[in-house]
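Newbie here. two chains, one complex. Structure please?
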Amino acid sequence: MRNTQYELSPMDNFSEDTLFMRMALREAEQAAAEGEVPCGAVIVLDGEVIGKAHNQTETLKDPTAHAEVLAITQATQAVGNWRLNGAVMYVTKEPCPMCAGALVLSRMKKVVWGMTDPIRGGAVSKFNILNEADLNHAVETEAGLMEADCKAVMQGFFQDLRLRTKEQRQQRKLDGEETG
Amino acid sequence: MRNTQYELSPMDNFSEDTLFMRMALREAEQAAAEGEVPCGAVIVLDGEVIGKAHNQTETLKDPTAHAEVLAITQATQAVGNWRLNGAVMYVTKEPCPMCAGALVLSRMKKVVWGMTDPIRGGAVSKFNILNEADLNHAVETEAGLMEADCKAVMQGFFQDLRLRTKEQRQQRKLDGEETG
């Protein structure tokens, strides 16, 4: 993957939150490098990282292998308990319905994301899964942390994808002219 | 687990659908035997079972280890593709929001469930995740297959749980009287 357009914004406003979101962004970059839609997630409990993952649906051939689900499984194994009371997730994109449901089930205290997904977001945008009175638990939310950086990773990935697809099409056309 | 109240209804109306739902019910019974909330799921593609699982959240200490998610992962590994186009899931309970999201992501053709969950159901009851125009895919639904049997497994589990809790409380009281 090229991702040449992408550069992290300077750490002017350093805080623990931006530190953990940078970590999630590094995971998203790793996903892009593996040809995966770039989403990264980090789970923090009492200042310690207990889960860190990126989207691996293509690599694992598993549609449930989103960054958030993988990070939740990792974190529960780290603490030896399926309840992640008090933990905070940092994720580059608003969670989808599956991941929002997983966040509620895990009893996550809070989720902080970068870019919002107004069309398919399962946290607050399309479905309000994280704060539904009838579910067992509500998850606090914070949207828009390092939003520009999170968008840049995603847009860079899809720009590269379009460029590669165009190049491949042109190459096939050239190959056809040579052999035709 | 006792589950003595529970007995499968006779196979008067035998069909492929009831056969697969019975298989899902056996998975639910296995969950109950392991002290898990009894939910079972089976995935069928072209008449062949490609995934079969029961809830294992307590055993695996993982809140994402619902029957549906485990069965989806199993099925994708069986076919070597994260897309389960054309597959049908049989599950004893209406999927929760997490599992409904996973069903959409997996491109499942249809899901058939036994008991509906009007309070927390993520398929059609509380959230209509399986048939939302803005998501990439819609999943066909059929509710109420072998509903009485599916309810009986669930109710038997919680009756047993209440009984055991009561017995333990009485035993602790007796122990207290003896040592007090």
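Moderator note: Residues 1-5 of chain B have pLDDT under 50 and may be disordered. The first helix of chain B runs from residue 16 to 33. Thread marked as resolved.
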